[in-house]
Amino acid sequence: MRHGNRAASAPWTRTRLRTAPGAAVALAVLVLVTAFLAAAFPRAVDAYETKGLRHDIGSADAGRGAVEVSRPQPGLELPQTQREAEARSPELSRVGGALLKALPAPLRADTPSVAYGIRTLKPVLATEPWLPRPDTVPPQLSYTAQTGLKKHARLVSGAWPTTPAAVTSETRAVQGTVTEETAAALNMKVGSTLRLPTAVGGPLKVTVTGIVAPRDRGGSYWSADPLVRTPSLIPDPASPFPQNYWTGTVLLAEDAGPALLATATEPSLFWRFPPDPSALTGPDGARLSAVIASLESGPGLLKVRAIAGDTAEVLTGLGHIVQANARMRDAISPVIAVAALGIGSVAAVVLVMTAALIAARRKAELALMRSRGGSLRGIGGRLLAETAVTVLPASALGLLLAVLLVGEGRWWPAALAATGVGLLVCVALPLRTTLQHIRPTLHGAREDMVSARPSRRRTVAELTLLVLAVGAVTALRRRGTSSGGGTDLLVSGAPVLVALIAALVLVRLYPLPLRLAARPVARLRGAIGFLSLARAGRSAAGGALPLLALLLALATAAFGGSVIAGIGDARDDAALTAVGADARVSGRSERATLPGELVRTVSGLDGVRNAAPLRIEFGVTMPETAAGDGGAGSGPDDSGTDTGADTGGGDAAGARATTMVGVDPASYTRLARTTGLPDFPSGLLKATGPSAPLPKGAKSGPERVLPVIASPAVAARLGKEQHAVDTLSGDFKVQVVGTVERVASLASTNFLIVNSASLEERAPTTLLLTGAPDPGKLRAAADRSGEEFVVQLRSEERARYVNTPMQAGAERIYLAAVAAGAGYALLAVLLSLLQTAPERKTLLARLRTMGLTTGQGRRLLAFEATPQALLAAGGGLLTGWATIVLLSPGIDLVPLALAGVAGSDTSPVTLRADLWSLALPAAGVVALAAAVAGVQAWWASRRGSITELRAGDSR
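Structure (tokenized):
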């Protein structure tokens, strides 16, 4: 049928999509998922960095986070009226508004919380007789007149302070208010009066007209200077004796500031701008640091001084907060980049494998077109058109889903990633297909890996890649993986490099065991073994591309699983270090001893499996001869806290200070074995002979020699000789009989463990428990013995290590990377088996006509898939282990596991290979390959041999 001179023909793209809709839909789904993951990754990184920055700024102490502009009182050379005008609210408001507008982006202030006014920098001694004097020292008070009091407080009693007339420096009576806490601590009430000395004339009288309560105790208005809200009892630094006095702040009326100019309290003008992090994003961190540095000592400070005066200065701790956030981001980024590059490489290989599968299925069709005169340009153009029609909309839909489902983030990195996925498929499929038909070909010989020889070009290309990969890994190993912050592509690409080396080597070595195994198997009676080996050697499923995909996926999954397992192990270990066991009962002060009744009651509670009493004594002085020997492992200055934190100081005092731990050897070794801490034979501390227990009331003499277990640092200083020590538990000599790396409930690396039965004072200061006692009953038992005892639970300590948004986001990305790696590994197995599925089904049909049973057919396919699966599993184990070993020296898991938790042990946590993370993905590959082979054999057995053989003679 013709329309004019043009023949009517159906469009090529529509015809192809109608002919093979299943393949088109499958390709579109794969591209959709891959584009979604590629677009979601940068948005997820932006999202957790944004939430992390906002969280760090929002949760920081208000005094650190606020940007404060301050300047001394107006100079004395100015006219008095001008000095007073600059201290009044109108002028302060005008300057504050100008400063607010001048804040450079991206720094923005929380406008409702902005405060400005005048305050005293030098506290004033309050001599009123009704004020409390804990140690006969009168309190010292500060005064501030700042805006927004009525907005940020509610009146509890009395009236708001006012200024009935204009206040000047000659005013000698003003009104003020205090918070409920200040009034309760300092015995203030409505009508109380305070007097401030002035430089000229009588004192300034301040009358308390009201008691107020903060509306938001944690807000910047009340927390930037905590004394405004809550008074404090502090030690007197000028007194030779331990004396304390009260200090607090009185809030004056808003316009009462000029009256402070007459006092000798060093009045200062201030404008406080709390930051508003709600509009900040993760990438704004670098700009924010630069802006803050400029405000503190740069061009920004000049602009501030042009508005607030030449003596103004900017004070803020916001820069340190942003820098700490940047350090955590830089520590996490290399770990995340490993997962991103690994999964990205796996996805790219799987997409190329998909293109290879489509090319193999259409090889005969395109060969016919080529033999009939079709040009490579024409064939490639048609393939590009039909691929683009399916792939580009799928990529766009993946991008849209990523934007809708993943939180805040920049759109252009996601768009680039999704576009890259679409372009890769659009280029790979036509290119991979047309390259097979540069020359018209007829049916060729089979591709048998046992007998075939690769071309010289392929050999040169593989050798080149192998040399480059080995060189990169060697350089990485010599240089180290610590990149000093930021992302190093060589470090991040370690799994890809190791997997590439393993894939190239294993593919070349793969025929050797097949050739060796085929000879003895051929002499056996059954044909299944020989046929499976022959098929395994001939199958294209064992090529380099499927193996590379599997190795990459397994290595990335093993690395990610090891990271996640390492985070959990680090948190468990930190909780154990802080508590010492599953539960701990100790005194609030380090020298408080536990009553015997409390020890017996707690030890008998339901759920307690073992109780180990400890007597811990901090700051035990070592002999000078021992302390000065060698100095190996110079000990810290144990400050006497219940954690025994090791500061690692190297001074003489630190070298002489250690911690003595008195234990019951039997109960302690049981506890150590239960919790996984280093233990020792209890007989080493046996209390016999010169270390036998003393009679009640007897004094310990210096001639007694006690065996001790020491830390390696202390053992190196003491040696094998006997040394006399003086402790609160008695005076005696010690001799090291063994060493352990750690002791329960102490983080210090300087300690001595003795048998508490040999001490003069044996009352325990700490009781460690294993098991699962009821927390309520445990605390109730401790409370009945007094308020000076505290209960710590390992589970509660472990719960302190909750994730910050940045840590949680990084962990979610790693979990997604492990899941995606497992998914792509499964898909790689399926694609490699689907590529030869028609040939296997035809083989089974032919063999069934020769008498092969259904069971034998299933075993044949299972045995055929086993060599490739074992090769991938073994290579995956090796690749994952090598990747972890290669990267572990430069990876510290502290930022992911423990950062942001006050008091946590932040010693480096190195990455270790996790057995389950290595073995489970590898076992999954073997199981999946066997399952797919079994399902394929079952499906083939349902169809008759005639039906399969009619489908064509597939070679």
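Residues 1-10, 447-452, 627-655, 951-955 have pLDDT under 50 and may be disordered. The chain has 33 helices and 23 strands.
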